[in-house]
Amino acid sequence: MCFYxxxxxxxxxxxxxxxxxxxxxxxxxxxxxxMPFYRMMLAVIILFWGCNSKPAPQDNKSQPAEIExxxxxxxxxxxxxxxxxxxxxxxxxxxxxxxxxxxxHFSHDIFRSxxxxxxxxxxxxVLPFYKQQFERHADEPKIQVESLLSxxxxxxxxxxxxxxxKLALDALTPFLPTFNDTINKSYYTLLAQxxxxxxxxxxxxDYYLKTIKIAEKxxxxxxxxxxxxxxxxxxSSMDEEQKAVPLKKLSLDYYIRQKNDAYAxxxxxxxxxxxxxxxxxxxxxxxxxxxxKLKEKGISNPSVEIILYTNLGEIYFERGNLKKALYxxxxxxxxxxxxxxxxxRLMYIIYATPAYNEVKADISPEISxxxxxxxxxxxxxxxxxVKAAYFNLYMVAEKRGWLQDALQYYKSYDSVSNIxxxxxxxxxITQLRTQYELQKKQTIILSQQKQIVKKTxxxxxxxxxxxAGVAFSGFIITYGRLRRKKxxxxxxxxxSTGLIARSETERSRLARDLHDGLGQNILxxxxxxxxxxxxxxxxxxxxxxxxxxxxxxxxxxxxDQIGFKESVNHICRQLSEKESLFISTDLxxxxxxxxxxxxxxxxxxxxxxxxxxxxAQAQAANIQTRVEGSDLIAVIRDNGKGFDVSSTLNxxxxxxxxxxxxxxxxxxxxxxxxxxxxxxxxxxxVPIDV
Length: 690
Description:
CATH architecture of the domain at 561-687: 2-Layer Sandwich
Keywords: ATP-binding, Kinase, Membrane, Nucleotide-binding, Phosphoprotein, TPR repeat, Transferase, Transmembrane, Transmembrane helix, Two-component regulatory system
CATH superfamily of the domain at 561-687: Histidine kinase-like ATPase, C-terminal domain
CATH class of the domain at 561-687: Alpha Beta
Distance between the termini: 46 Å
GO molecular function, one term: phosphorelay sensor kinase activity
Strand order of the largest sheet: 3-4-5-7-6
Structural class: alpha+beta
Protein name: histidine kinase
Pfam family, one: HisKA_3
Shape: globular
Number of strands: 7
Organism: Arachidicoccus rhizosphaerae
CATH topology of the domain at 561-687: Heat Shock Protein 90
Helix content: over 70%
Radius of gyration: 29 Å
């Protein structure tokens, strides 16, 4: 899976070397960002109880001698039962045989022990056991709480079913007033995991920090270390690998000192990926080797093994060692068969297919599976994996001489790459903006100090440099604004023609015509290859570049590939992540509009959100679509400062609003705009296609 390189700290970038070579690409960390399973498994996780944390205070009136005896018997089960499935069965049976009072006292410890064994060796009997205990102890809130926490943990960490885990946590609501610190610690950790798997890293971090605060109060070092590991995974997911590495090292060192090989195994793989993402391959291989040694010692964690083997398989394939690549890809098959989900299997297929293409005569089954993966991950808006799939299909087609297929795959790959590149650029712009704000604050502080501190040559020089820096920044900003105004004026003149719809249609037609024309040239090249004629390889690259540039500039390909609804959700999520604006969506849409109307409405939403970000000074915005009779109603709403609609439209500087009105007319729709002190409301009414 190429689990190494730059993006999210856990990302290599596939790029062309010479003609068709590849270099470490940008796929691995993006998988951590988007796929809940990989984000969760490569965190140096602390299981939700805090592992060896102190048990919750018990409302216990039992005899100390009986408690001591049961504690010894549980320890004997732990040491005597080597087979994990026998240990689970023994623990379940033993718990059932305890008195009601002892079940109440030991529910926390036994439920935790069952989870720890099931986590390392997934066993399907544990979840039904937890549910059974909830039903049997309707009069014992403490056991019911332990059962629901256990169910949530099982869904989140073992089954990777985030929605089911959230439902189990929601069922805890009536019990919240009774929680003590230990239970709250477990509850917050599980909530953090829910948001983590959903990709809401900010909320996940908030809950992890709450958990750490409670753990510090309880002096629970294991929980503190584990949740620092969780924070490191969030840093990796947010492309902050430099911040992630020290926390991962801290966690791994702790587990090694505690001789906790199970967690050390996870930590070694996670830290190896981080070093690889930072291009520190010697350190990466050192920790990969440590993980393999732990596996040889008998440590078993199928989920982490899938990641480890697939990662090493991709690395060795990138380095041209096909034999080792196939060896590690083959090792993935056993853990995938044991616990692999459909998503894990398809991800494995995406990254293993180029290697198997080297040794298989018929690669068509794998190609079909990769196409199936594209459909699945497109529905999930997982553009990183869609990009990886298209690129690897392109590599396979090119290797086999299927030039027409290679062209199509590369077009799709390039389209997705541009979307992801735009996301990276937005992030970089945000970083520059933050640096600029920091520089302004530092300038103010230094200016104040200059009024107090004796003026020296050093201070004068420093002040001059700072003033020059601010002046240069001002020049850059002013220049950028002038360019934007000029561009807006040009676009204003374009939209005044009232031919928006016709323009889009013409552009799409032009893209198809150019593609068909160039396609004939490529077909000619193909015949030349078959006939053994010598051709100029660079001509193929030029044709590819030309088609790629033209197609990308005239039509948003991803709108066709993932659909209108998912495309709108995607841009809303993207803007929410990059700007200080919360954007919610409420989209009731089942394909009521044709492709042309979808395109124009998509552009309207883009323009409306851009206006909110640039001018409204709003904290939140909302996008809605709903069907009313024979019309589709689209709404853009924000809680910003508002403006005078009439004067703004008449000012000649209202490109964004004019764009919305013109695009609405182009699809026989009507746009109305209302704005005031409480925000702006834009309503677009579009006739449904019959």
